[in-house]
């Protein structure tokens, strides 16, 4: 009998050669070295053999609920791209169902879940919540406070743009949240550091602080929109690495964007726990800003609630529902859920307060906003052509004209001091159309509105960046 197990022995035993042979041989020879039989050694080697790979689902195996209408040829092109990408997404072996919301738009190459997409799966897909984990909405109602006073107060206490608050001005999340970061391998280290540095900040892009009045009562309200910033981005990066390791073993044909972490693994349990910690950080982040504004005004908050619209939810059926830019509209979507959710449109339109309808054809979700029909770059190119700008882009006079036209007397502010016209109303789909489709498909009921007074966004913070000044 041989005193050592070789690679040829494994092949002769019917095993398929691969990278796994190295640990398999080590395990087999350890058994032999301890006096075990060749049969026992080969059995030990087999424990290292990877499971058979799972093929992609066939085209059309999983149906897609479509809750979107195109009102013109341009929108039709957008809808076709959304459907094409979702058809590729649902070929992922663990996906069980999918739906498209009225505000859907492409978010990457074919096979990437679109914004306004909902996917139910047996596993967790980090790529289906992307780096802006728990992008969400929060509202606080301030009785007896004027909208301008509230907008001024928020402007003085919030923080938009890259990075975090300056040293000496930083706030900290709750002790429970800090402890949860420290105890989770996905969140300890760099994620914890930025979790402190960026607490009580709002980022850039389409995130905002919106002040308006409740249509039902006339009371002033603050609505904020942002995600988990760098802490969430760090979790996403780590999650994607783990998911892709599983993908390489389980389903190499699956698009990397749709790689998954199996729910019944230690990695899956830990990642699910990390998502809940990021959710708690984000919720605290919203209301820290609201509370600072209240303190600034010595005002009381009479009501508040919040909801995420870019997250992973687990229902009683055991599946994970990935809402990529989709508002939960089913009962009990979270322990702290109320029966109300917030759906913003654009800075010039009311924010909708809705009650979900748990529609089967929406997988229990509603839109998260108005969505885009084109990228920021394409929108800016169109504005440049419309306003006759030269190759250097829009002039200050062009921007002033666009602002006056699109904000229509609202108190619209940009934290950086430079307007970002790619976030103005014309960049988004028709609010009236999206609202109409919410009703047409029965995805949610509008029960109140926050009428716009003004808002704050990061603005074009890159305009004054040192590297741009040097280049000019």
TrEMBL record:
GMP binds at residues 344-347, 368-371. GO terms for molecular function: DNA ligase activity; GTP binding; manganese ion binding; RNA ligase (GTP) activity. Its cofactor is Mn(2+). Its EC number is 6.5.1.8. Pfam families: RtcB. It comes from the Bacteria. Mn(2+) 1 binds at residue 207. It is an enzyme of class 6 (ligase). The active site is at 368 (gmp-histidine intermediate). Mn(2+) 2 binds at residue 225. Binds 2 manganese ions per subunit. The keyword Metal-binding applies. Keywords: GTP-binding, Ligase, Manganese, Metal-binding, Nucleotide-binding, RNA repair. It catalyses: a 3'-end 3'-phospho-ribonucleotide-RNA + a 5'-end dephospho-ribonucleoside-RNA + GTP = a ribonucleotidyl-ribonucleotide-RNA + GMP + diphosphate. GO terms for biological process: DNA repair; RNA processing; RNA repair. This is 3'-phosphate/5'-hydroxy nucleic acid ligase. The lineage of its organism: Bacteria, Pseudomonadati, Pseudomonadota, Alphaproteobacteria, Hyphomicrobiales.
């Amino acid at each position: 009998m041989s005193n050592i197990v070789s690679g040829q022995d494994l092949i002769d035993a019917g095993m398929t050669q691969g990278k796994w042979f190295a640990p398999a041989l080590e395990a087999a020879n350890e058994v032999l070295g301890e006096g075990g039989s060749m049969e026992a050694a080969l059995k030990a080697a087999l424990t290292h053999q990877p499971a058979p790979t799972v093929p992609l689902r066939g085209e059309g195996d999983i149906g897609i609920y479509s809750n979107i209408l195109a009102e013109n040829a341009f929108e039709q092109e957008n809808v076709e791209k959304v459907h094409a990408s979702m058809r590729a997404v649902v070929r992922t072996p663990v996906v069980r169902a999918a739906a498209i919301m009225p505000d859907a738009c492409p978010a990457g190459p074919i096979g990437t879940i679109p914004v306004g997409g909902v996917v139910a799966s047996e596993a967790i897909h980090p790529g289906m919540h992307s780096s802006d984990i728990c992008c969400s909405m929060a509202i606080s109602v301030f009785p007896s406070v004027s909208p301008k006073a509230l907008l001024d107060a928020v402007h003085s206490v919030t923080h938009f743009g890259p990075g975090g608050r300056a040293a000496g001005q930083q706030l900290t999340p709750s002790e429970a949240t800090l402890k949860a970061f420290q105890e989770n391998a996905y969140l300890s280290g760099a994620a914890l550091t930025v979790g402190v540095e960026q607490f009580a900040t709002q980022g850039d892009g389409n995130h905002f602080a919106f002040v308006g009045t409740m249509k039902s009562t006339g009371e002033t309200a603050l609505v904020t929109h942002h995600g988990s910033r760098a802490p969430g981005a760090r979790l996403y990066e780590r999650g994607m690495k783990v998911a892709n390791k599983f993908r390489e073993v389980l389903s190499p044909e699956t698009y990397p964007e749709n790689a998954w972490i199996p729910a019944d693994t230690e990695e899956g349990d830990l990642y699910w726990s990390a998502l809940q910690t990021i959710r708690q950080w984000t919720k605290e982040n919203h209301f820290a800003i609201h509370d600072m504004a209240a303190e600034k005004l010595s005002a009381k908050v009479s009501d508040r609630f919040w909801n995420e619209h870019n997250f992973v939810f687990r229902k009683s059926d055991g599946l994970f529902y990935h809402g990529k830019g989709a508002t939960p509209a089913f009962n009990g979507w979270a322990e702290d859920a109320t029966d109300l959710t917030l759906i913003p449109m654009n800075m010039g339109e009311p924010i909708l307060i809705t009650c979900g309808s748990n529609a089967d054809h929406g997988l229990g979700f509603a839109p998260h906003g108005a969505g885009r029909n084109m990228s920021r770059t394409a929108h800016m190119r169109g504005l440049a052509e419309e306003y006759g700008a030269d190759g250097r882009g829009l002039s200050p006079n062009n921007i002033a004209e666009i602002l006056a036209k699109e904000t229509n007397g609202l108190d619209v502010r940009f934290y950086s001091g430079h307007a970002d016209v790619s976030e103005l109303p014309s960049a988004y789909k028709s609010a009236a159309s999206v609202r109409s489709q919410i009703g047409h498909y029965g995805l949610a009921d509008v029960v109140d509105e926050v009428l716009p007074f003004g808002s704050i966004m990061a603005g074009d913070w890159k305009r004054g960046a040192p590297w741009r000044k040097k280049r000019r």
